[in-house]
Amino acid sequence: MRKTLFLLLLSGVLSVSAQPRRTEMKAAREVIERTFPQWAERLQLKPAAKQDGRDMFRQSVNGQRLTVEASSGVALCRGVYDFIRQNGLGIYSWSGTRETAPASLSSFSTRMKISPFAHHYYFNVVTYGYSMPYWDWERWEKEIDWMALHGIDMPLALTANEAISARVWKRLGLSDEEIAAYFVGPAHLPWMRMGNISGIDGPLPEQWHERTIALQHRILDRMRSLGMTPICPGFAGFVPQALKRLYPDVKLTETSWGGAFHNWMLSPEDELFHTLGKMFIEEWEKEFGKNSHYIVDSFNEMDIPFPPKEDPRRYELLASYGERVYKSIRAGNPDAVWVMQGWMFGYQRDIWDAPTLQALLSRVPDDKMLLLDLAVDYNKCFWNSEVNWEFYPGFFGKPWVYSVIPNMGGKTGMTGMLSFYANGHLEALASPNRGCLTAFGMAPEGIENNEVIYELLADAGWNGTETDVEQWIANYCTSRYGAYTPALQSFWKGMLSSVYGSFTDHPRYNWQFRPGRVRKGSIATQPAFYAGVEALAEGAHELKGSPLFEADFREWTAAYMGGKMEELTAQIEETYLMDEKEKARTLEERFARWMQATDRLLAGHPTHNLSRWIDWARHCAGENHALADYYERNARRIVTIWGPPVDDYSARIWSGLLRDYYLPRWQHYFEQLRTGQPFDFAAWERNWVEERKGLSPIASTACALEDAVTLVREAASLSASATWQSSVMGGWQTSEVQE
After folding, report:
1. Whole-angstrom distance, CA of residue 44 vs CA of residue 80
2. What is the pTM of this model?
3. E-strand spans in 537-652?
4. Of the candidates 614, 611, 588, 618, which has an alpha carbon nearest to the alpha carbon of residue 699?
């Protein structure tokens, strides 16, 4: 009887432990059915064990059938996608999918891959503002599919943070009105969560909480079904000032960010911090189930309220701070891991020296913390500073994520050091100070741009050996378009010598700023860049019929025209200085025509248009037109004036923005030059955000490829003025605003 009972219990345990594997395999197959349906019926998926705690996959073919053995749902998806990609049979991207499935697979190569990392991390806290605030489930499902195919198993999952915060504060006794007034508009929520801002585009409507709760359930259910480890939000100490009504004696520190924004911070030294941290996780897990990782950031781009470095009390206070933050998380979930962004480790080393960080971490158990070394590309390619795992030796034993930030603000300008993105992580893997290097990550502030970079990074995270970038590009083009033509080879030679062989912190053209503020943009439009696009234009007909090539050539033509329009602005200003007003009008007409033609070209692009962004925002409101107007205002604000200030930070080369925002703003400037009458740009910008609804009508070009080629050929004939050339050669610098 005892033996029978034991066997029944053992059978139950084995059944439970096997269930997640079956769930993951089912979820992985469903990803393939949605993304590469031609492969679904020819696919066999099998479970396999992890290798030293790391995911792996193994491919094999037999006639028409592909078999992939892998160690998780994500690894299964990655194994299938790797076979398709490496054999040039297709690609899954934000701007579209290409899929081919040959009758016989016998001639195609297979391989086994063991990731050099235990996890693959994705997203930046602010991606939830610059790209994702108004996504519906349909768009989220596509992104989770994209993650799985690209081998990502540790994404940020921050949706519904405010709904849970509101529940906690209501339990304390704050009113709905007090809570709503503290919150900001949906696109600005990331900065409120990090203590940078409050009140912008508030109050946040109650309907937002209902929507995000329902959406987050679907997001987390899908992530977990694939074996992902979502990182969810925790309590970082930022609270409504109205909390003083309930707790008159509580000490709230007013935070400052950028000299123009503020929030209120509750110190971890206060017992209320512990209470709220515990309550937040309890409410979160009551709604969404148990979670293992919680992100808590209290110092994003802010000074720390501790004594100076020469004061020994500084380190004791920091140690106590770290201990109390961790204990507030542990009180809600004893098994939880505290995740913290490390942007300030490179960005603010004047504050965060090694002893300061070591003190903060000193009383947190090593296995209960994960540090996101967010921006290695900034260390290596922009700040030219020592990498963080060397500056803070091995991060003092704490597990950490090697990560890059290949985008700021969702800008669509072309930039990125491809050679570094392909191989930079190898330095970390080989370092004696690698410590507990746990994961590879990418943390773009905004996505749906520079797609080649993300495809390359996804491959790099599963590769522990050096990548030949030129060979990789040849494979990428074959996967994406079905061919790697001589014109494409010339194009990529130019790109690797310009925009994709350099790193620009904020890639923008000067016409994406308010006129008069910046004379020269920051995008690397060197001669090689122009030559590359011009060479591709001459051979573009060879790829006619490829939807992805057409989409990419629309984007590349827009980038090319962006540089030419920047040159035009200088010529126009020069003619006004020379009092050649008729010549100026002729150049202004060309500027307007090129801007409108570029806008029309992008109107047919899958992602680069403002109408799609606004439609998402308005869709969130259902039939509530007043609420739809509110969401549209917020969506317009984040991609233009931001607050203000932080004007023009997002700088998107999008249809709709070109014709309705950038072009009329410059036309007002030209009128100012012509008449001498000042124009109130700030008032015009605010009105565009807060009063205008909808976009001016435009029809996408019917012959996109031919029109793009014609546009490039026409612009190629423009020669920069002697004054412009000498200014650039002489190092004419921008007069960028503080951001």
Report:
1. 10
2. 0.94
3. none
4. 611
- Take residue 614 and report the two structure tokens written for it: 């606004």
**Alpha-carbon span 397 to 385, nearest angstrom:** 22
Q: Taking a C-beta distance cutoff of 8 angstroms, is the pair 421, 404 a contact?
A: yes
State the residue for tokens 């001498």. 676
Q: What local confidence, expressed as pLDDT, does residue 719 receive? A: 57
What would the DSSP string read from start to end of 137-159?
HHHHHHHHHHHHHTT--EEB--T
Specify the pairing of strand 43-47 against strand 65-70: parallel
> Residue written as tokens 């206070």?
317
**Average pLDDT of the chain, as a whole number:** 93
pLDDT digits (tens, 9 = 90+) for 661-672: 999 999 999 999
Residue 155 class from Cβ within 10 Å (0-12 exposed, 13-18 middle, 19+ buried)? buried
For residue 298, the model assigns a pLDDT of 86
CA neighbours closer than 13 Å in the CB half-sphere of residue 325? 29
Question: What are the CA-CA distances from residue 539 to residues 287, 533, 557 (Å)?
Answer: 56, 10, 14
Alpha helices by DSSP H, listed for 226-270, are 243-246
Instruction: In whole angstroms, give the CA distance from residue 176 to residue 170.
Output: 7
Q: Which amino acid is at 114?
A: I
Q: What is the mean pLDDT of residues 429-434?
A: 98
- Tell me the C-alpha distance between 195 and 188, whole Å: 11
Burial 168-197 (b: 16+ CB within 10 A, else e): bbeeeebeeebbbbbbbbbbbbbbbbbbbb
End-to-end CA distance of the chain: 73
